[in-house]
Amino acid sequence: MRAQRETGTVERMKDMATKKEGDAVLKHRKKRWTRDDTELTLLATPTVIWYLLFSFIPMFGIIIAFKEFRINGNFIQSVISSSWCGFENFRFMFTSQDAWIVLRNTLGYNIIFIILGIVVPVTMALMIGQLHSRRLGKIYQTAMFMPYFLSWVVVAAIVWGFLSYDKGFVNNIVTGNGGDPLNWYMMKGPWPFFLIFLNVWKGLGYGMVVYLATITGIDSTYYEAAVIDGATKWQQVKYITLPIMKTVIIIMFIMSVGRIFYSDFGLFFQVPHDSNSLHTVTYTIDVMVFKMLKSATIGMASAAAFFQSVMGCITILIANWIVRRVDPDSAMI
Amino acid sequence: MAKKKYMSGLEKFDRIHPSTNVLFNIIFILISLVCVIPVIFVLSISFSSEKSIQDFGYHLIPKTFSIESYTFLLRQGTVITRALGVSLFVTIVGTILGVLLTTTMGYVLSRPQYKLKGLLTWVVFIPMVFNGGMVSSYYVNANLLGLKNNIWAYILPLAVSSFNVIICKTFFRSTIPDSLVESAKIDGATQLHIFFRIVLPISLPVLATIGLFLSFGYWNDWFQAMLYIDDTKLNSLQALLTKIMDNVDYLSRNAATMGVSSAELARSMPKEGARMAIAALIVIPIGCAYPFFQRYFISGLTVGAVKG
Q: pLDDT value at position B304?
């Protein structure tokens, strides 16, 4: 990955060089629109239309958070004809009893997910590189990648297989040992752990891929020199591998911090079967927006969605600003 | 030769202790099992007879092996085949469309001399930072674009992602030499020609990566159905599973609207098994396919992780 980043830098330098050349040699040509440009524009048009329809119109549609939205003709007409209501929708949202729960769950789970989403895959990646057999390592990696490819609906079905009240695998074992079956979908206590476990379980394969790419990209001569100097494995990890991985880890960390106001809808809605008893531990911003949208409480839903988009945008920009200070090459902007 | 011998000696010396190796292997075997067993669990339930599920609940190994869930699904005919058809159609058409839209944009952005490059980079970049959110996207798609109960609701909103466009752009920028494009231009080729005849054929790795991201995404998507699809005829497999998870009787009720007697079905139907059989229908193709395509996934993920 280091190598990749380096080529990235070289590329950037080349880009800059061509730009300079272009400035000097082709200054008069710069303004002229060539046939080439027309053809390229033609090639890009379908995608640009897609972006307009599916990204940019919804961005402007976000102002419905400040309106008393009524459907009246098509969407644009309704937005224009709906009357303004200032921050009324936001007042309703923040004074609702769920506001605190939703915010706490979204941020709380995300903080735990971010920490575990780094610690566990990094540890696994460090360990898997040490195995004597490369082949076994590959096999384990493939197995651990499996959950990444399952949709949350399928995961919900699997979890149901384990936790269902009358037929679930866990309750079978409990009753088999003479205990009373537990109604898992009514018990708040263990659900935070289930959700955290599932999140780590599903993201493990992805995280390992990213970190392993960094580890395999490290120049082996570092380790050779260290071994000759008598470094133990642990010292090699501590003084060579981890310092080199630092940038990637920081970038992954900041990227996920940038998404701290977003939650995995499937995890929090599908897996707990939208159970009302679990509401206080599974309700996140996305779940709230979806449920309000389905129950046609558009005012509050749009306010919550607006809050999420704007806060998301701010955190991403701040995160990017920090990345830029840590490692300018990896910044998005 | 001497160097090689010395190196392998060093490598041997640097290995972790054999007992640590055994310990690590045990840990990884356990984790791998945790990752794979749930899938086997689904398969095993789908191959259990309904009676054994009723009597003994779900088990890791079927108490009595039976394919009645699958024969039941087959007898259902229309509901399942339609859902399978919708899933396949969405995956295939969506992947082709998505790859075209993504690669054209990636190619255009990778041309250094293109005049609108700056503008289009912003067009791609802004949605990565800011989006309209679920509510306004829903109204735009359902109300303005008429995607409510329309099969394109599965396909269009997921066709392009800025992440994929950037992967493509990075790939084209670093692997397609400018001289190749220039020489084709001198020979009188248009950019359309260059893109389809020259660039795409030598870009198979990135096509595979993007195509796989998209096809797994489409096959696994259930959220679009929750938002836009109420019409039972347009259910995909994932949508069907979502609805069956909410209500086991969904399949029998649904079949009744399609001409089978509901009461008769509700009696004879292996509900629990059928539910897991649908999950199995979703999982089996993925489980069989991904080990072979993992390489392309990994290349895409690592590029994406670096370039954001």
A: 52
Nearest residue of B to residue A315 by CA position?
A: B129
CA distance A189 to chain B (A): 22
Minimum-distance CB partner of A147 among B35, B124, B272: B35
Chain segment A97-143, per-residue pLDDT in tens: 888 888 999 999 999 999 999 999 999 998 888 888 888 888 998 89
Start-to-end C-alpha separation, chain A: 20
Residue A195: HSE in the Cβ half-sphere, 13 Å Cα cutoff = 29
- CA closest to B273 among chain A residues: A161
Specify whether the CB–CB gap between B213 and B164 falls below 8 A: yes
Query: Residue B241 corresponds to which tokens in the numbers above?
Result: 């599973």
Q: How many contacts does A have with B, using Cβ atoms within 8 A? A: 315
Please compute the mean of the pLDDT values over residues B223-240 and round it to a whole number: 87
Domain positions in chain A: 89-150+201-330
| End-to-end CA separation in angstroms for chain B | 43
Contact status of A195 with chain B (Cβ, < 8 Å): no
Task: Give the three-state DSSP class for A274.
Answer: coil
Largest pairwise CA distance in chain A: 88
Give Cα separations from A257 to A108, A113, A123, B67 (angstroms). Answer: 12, 10, 20, 47
- Fold (CATH) for B69-307: MetI-like fold (1.10.3720)
Retrieve residue B156's tokens: 């269009």
- The reply to whether A61 touches chain B by the CB within 8 Å rule is yes
Give the integer Cα–Cα distance in Å for A124 and A207: 9
Minimum distance, in Å, between the CA of residue A9 and any CA atom of chain B: 11
**A126: closest CA of chain B, how far (Å):** 11
Architecture of domain A89-150+201-330: Orthogonal Bundle (1.10)
d(CA A69, CA A265): 25
Q: CB–CB of A47/B160 below 8 Å?
A: yes
Distance from CA of A269 to the nearest CA of B (A): 11
Task: Find, among A255, A315, A215, the residue nearest to B308 by Cα.
Answer: A255
A289 vs B133: CB contact, 8 Å cut-off?
yes
C-alpha distances (whole Å) from B70 to each of B113, B242, B288 are 58, 18, 19
Pairwise CB contact (< 8 Å): A153 & B124: no
pLDDT value, residue B256: 53
Whether A251 contacts A257, CB under 8 Å: no
A136 touches chain B (CB under 8 A): yes
How many Cα atoms occupy the beta-carbon half-sphere of A295 within 13 Å? 8
- What was the ipTM of the complex prediction? 0.85
Q: 3-state class of A67 per DSSP?
A: strand
Q: How far is A160 from chain B (nearest CA, A)?
A: 9
B50, B247 contact by CB (below 8 A): no
∠A20-A21-A26 over CA atoms, to 5°?
A: 110
For A267, the closest chain B residue by CA position comes to B223
User: Best residue in A151, A275, A310, A311 to probe B by mutation, most B CBs within 10 Å?
Assistant: A151
CA distance B227 to A289: 12
pLDDT (tens digit per residue) in B41-90: 888 888 877 777 777 777 777 777 777 778 777 777 677 888 889 999 99
Q: Cβ contacts (< 8 Å) between A298 and chain B: which residues? A: 135
Given an 8 Å threshold on Cβ–Cβ distance, is A151 in contact with B135?
Answer: no
